[in-house]
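User:
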Amino acid sequence: MLPPPPAPLLVVEICQRLFNTLQLDEGRAQRCSQVLLDAPIQLSQITDGYEAGVDLLPGLLLKRGQTSMVNAKKLEKAEARLKAKQDKRMERDSLKTSGPLVLEEASASQAASKKETRMESSGKNKSYDVRIENFDVSFGERVLLAGADLNLAFGRRYGLVGRNGLGKTTLLKMIASRSLRIPSHISILHVEQEVAGDETPALQSVLECDTTRESLLQEERALTAKINAGRGEGTEGARLSEIYTKLEEIEADKAPARASVILAGLGFNAKMQQQTTKEFSGGWRMRLALARALFARPDLLLLDEPTNMLDVRAILWLETYLQTWQSTILVVSHDRNFLNAVATDIIHLHSQRLDTYRGDFENFMKIKEERLKNQQREYEAQQQYREHIQVFIDRFRYNANRASQVQSKLKLLEKLPELKPVDKESEVIMKFPDGFEKFSPPILQLDEVDFYYDPSHYIFRALSVSADLESRICVVGENGAGKSTMLKILMGELAPVRGIRHAHRNLKIGYFSQHHVDQLDLNISAVELLARKFPGKTEEEYRHHLGSYGVSGELAVRPVASLSGGQKSRVAFAQMTMSCPNFYILDEPTNHLDMETIEALAKALNKFRGGVILVSHDERFIRLLCQELWVCESGAVTRIEGGFDQYRDILREQFRKEGFL
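Assistant: Predicted structure:
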């Protein structure tokens, strides 16, 4: 290492040598705006305005022939800012969870609003509108809604629609549990998607909806027992007087009569009102749940697929009743006709957000299609504009005379609004494997069949029906008329009391039950389910089969219990078709399925080379698929030549006679 000379001399000498090395004379230095400094300067004062990480070297050391590198430096800075902004957008868009999901309990969060909190706590100007702003809903690690807004105006009826598994049922549960901030003075009642049965009588089940009445009666019984046992402390009498006053105010004595009237309107006779809830079929349990809701008369009524397992008559009655409902309704439904009759607004759940549309479902479809077309046109136009600007930037990037224009174009790009292409939902495709062989008739037939569970009450008398491998038959009728019983007789699960069931020896029937969830092991995955029932295949084969019904990716390895109602139905379809039947008997197959899957199911059954008999009350599904309509009533099955239109007219005429219309 050389010994350092005196500092002032060294600095002057180095600067002079550097100046001589660049071979710049004084005239040329003036033209290039470069001077030999005669005093030191503080570089930190010059670079204070620059962003960290920006490479300053190209701007400090100039090549020969370059005349305006200051502008180039600004250009690089502008490009860096634009790139950083784009990277930030990409990072935000990629926040959607990928990889295996940890499914836990659903949770919700909502940004605080001091104004709303003050209004609610003050108790003044109480509004029954529901406004939930900027909230998130997740299920375990899976984000269902992010930064969503939900506004429900009091007295309007909202239909909530969207694909299976996106979180419609979870959202209703979050609202019902008040996990989202809803004013405490708004009463909420949730009619759940799956109704459980227990030992409670039907009438008592309805009465228990009035929690205020029930709590007062329980306290009254406890205090009375305490007084009768001589264990009172002297204050029980005063409290009893208060309870009796409150019971009188809410007209508690009239509640049983009112509940009985509601149940009777839904088809429950006096005997049925005393039966335990577990004795009823799925359709009657749904009616019971609706009766509880109508009895409670909440400010916000939440209905989760209320038409599931209801017969056509009950659906028409419910449509008529809800059209006169005075408070707010939020209903999840995949029945287009029901939504057209009931909904005043449609809320579309997709892409982790909620979009609201005025009008019924048909109006929603028209507006949505138009919005999507406009969105795609705007996106494509902006992309063309961006490309045009980028071509200019790339062409004149290093042109000093155009540097300011390039910087202006970059700023313009940065300020352009962020538009996204239309998120096209993947098409739902279902395929039923063919097990087709040419069979000589008869294929499946009941001849003069009588059947009963109790000899005093015949379900069928002299029932004669038949089907072949081209049949597309839909069975309709009221709940309890014997539709499911007839299907079980056709399958051979129930033996006729009298008469003959004939089935071709090569007939292989696939059966889908309306209570199909009870036939699934909910604690294992769909892949394990198929492997246990149909051993001998590889995991890839099971996954491929499940994928044919929309149960793909991580859905196939999640516990069945964690799947939505529609996804469980798809697992049941996969299980049913694994053995390649040549005839399908389906009992309420559209329950819980979204509209896209219902249409895919109808298309798949139309293409299936085999016979189909099904029970359904979904009008659109029936019209898409069925060629014959059988009405099950009064111990007989009648074929209606005019199809569903004629059947609907018959029911409306009955309603007129009974005073419903």
